[in-house]
Write the structure tokens for this entry.
Amino acid sequence: MDEEPERAKRWEGGYERTWEVLKEDESGSLKATVEEILFQSKRKRVIESHGQVRLGMMRHLHVVIDCSRSMEDQDLKPNRLTSTLKLLETFVDEYFDQNPISQLGLITTKNKRAEKLTDLAGNPKKHAAALKKAVDTVCLGEPSIYNSLNLAIQTLKHMPGHTSREILIILSSLTTCDPANICELIKTLKSLKVRVSVIGLSAEVRVCTVLTRETGGSYHVILDESHFKELLMLHVKPPPASSSSECSLIRMGFPQHTIASLTDQDAKPSFSMSHLDSSSAPGLSLGGYFCPQCHAKYTELPVECKVCGLTLVSAPHLARSFHHLFPLQAFIESPVEEFQEDRFCQACQGELKDKSIFTCPSCRSVFCVECDLFIHDLLHCCPCCIHSQSAP
Amino acid sequence: MASEDEINLLVIVVDVNPIWWGQQAQRETELTLSKCLDAVMVLGNAHISMARTNRLAVIASHCQDSHFLYPKKSWRAGDSGGDDACSSGDGKYELLAVANNLIAEEIRNVMSKAEVKGNSTDTFLAGSLAKPLYFTGQVIKAAEDCALQYMNFMNVIFAAQKQNILIDACVLDSESGLLQQACDITGGLYLKIPQKVALAQYLLWVFLSDSEQRSQLVLPPPAHVDYRAACFCHRNLIEIGYVCSVCLSIFCNFSPICTTCETAFKIQLPQMIKPKKKKLKQPT
């Protein structure tokens, strides 16, 4: 199965002299080096960008959480399970923020079995609530990668071809207990075009390396909690779509939001379809979103209409994903001494105190480090380029 | 009451499109640009007076540019005492006097330097909103929307929502769908003023309070926001449409090729039923 040569392990490579990175200046302080290292780590995230690659925007992701005995280990404070669940709550928020029309499902595995925590759904609140409750679960036994993958496949294989099917496993144990040959399962995953990625909490495990390599996912092992967060956030961005995924036109509805008050004559209170099967008392409400096809009412978007099956979204949900399709180019970095004119950042009007300044390649306006990070992480458009677009 | 250390910054973005204001001056003489700016200065002064740590910034949004009226660039670099500002003789708080003078002077600079290109009445709100995005923003808008800026505008709105910045809008003339969406998404207030003369009153009543105080006041009800999408082919607002899975462009009718990303779509055809071959009975 492993025809590809694996990359050399760390202990096989040359001796890394990590102390040489730190250099003292004349007074013996390390401040400049430390600042430089922090600066580089900030910039690292901005530089990696996809460019003109087709992305899988509608994603169906299953997250498998290992709840075996090794999760009680206290190397992540307070213990691995609590730390993982907390980071997953942030992940769920970010995921739905960056991929508003995607869906997420949670699976836990312990005691050689796998169980669904939440179904595949597009509503972040349900997942967040389930994660909060899961803090109390008892961790025992061994995880089963086979069973959890099987459980995930059962829902993913029915998903339409134009969506991306992904599984993310957070594995802390070094063993797995499988009822059948996992190699067969890997072949099935490949044929179903499911991409499996693993984040390991303990050490590299060979079966995970093979699993991720064959299905096209990524495998990382964490160093500490902040690295764990970074690795989780890598999975928030939409992955490049595989060439075999189909492209199709999906029929969607854009319902109007009606806000009615008691003084309106036509206002009739009604139930929301999404709350019909919830145990808390379903409330009658006056306003909401009405499906354009069957007029069923929902309180939140995006949702799939239970009556007629139409996907309901609102235009801002689609607009949130546009910045992935038209990413902002990285700005050109240059040392601040070369800059002759007025030393002011165009965005925040503050003085340029840092070592380097960033210039937008199209409009040549100058920004400081903080504004550059802000523009690339949050804003996704250059404030001065917007001005240079001429009016029609 | 806000705690001692919190700095509450209010940014007012004023639409100073000269064409619209010129037309407005011809239509009715009650509300001119200078009166509008007076009202804005009243709001700014009131905000500064509310708490010691409150700060203010004013931006003028123009056809091709947006310009910080207050504070000025060089002012930031020096210390924040107004040394060269003339102290007004009537006992006004110095900061307010400095602010008012600076605003008046800058607006004169902006208006005199501006070149009028073409007849458009659109303004580049996206640019002016992008700049002060660490603050609470307010927009006073006169002219109409420009469809070109939709994507940039939405980017700005989502960034504001992430940072918990409220965007309020005070519209003088025509309704603006984009600003309605901005206010709805970020949690701010949208108001179209019925009587332009009373601008200062509306500003003080509705927009002066910060987010915690707003729950205590009885404010105008939220406007009905139209979240329907516009199709890319005709720019009509549609309720049910087809979305391309690759580039997320919206179409009102099914077409075999997406015009934006030029992917060909698979068309779902009904399954062909193979005709069953009937075995001919051999005549025995």
Remarks:
- Chain A touches chain B through 57 residues (CB under 8 Å).
- The two ends of chain A are 60 Å apart (CA to CA).
- Residues 82 and 135 of chain A are 6 Å apart (CA to CA).
- Residues 80-98 of chain A form the longest helix (19 residues).
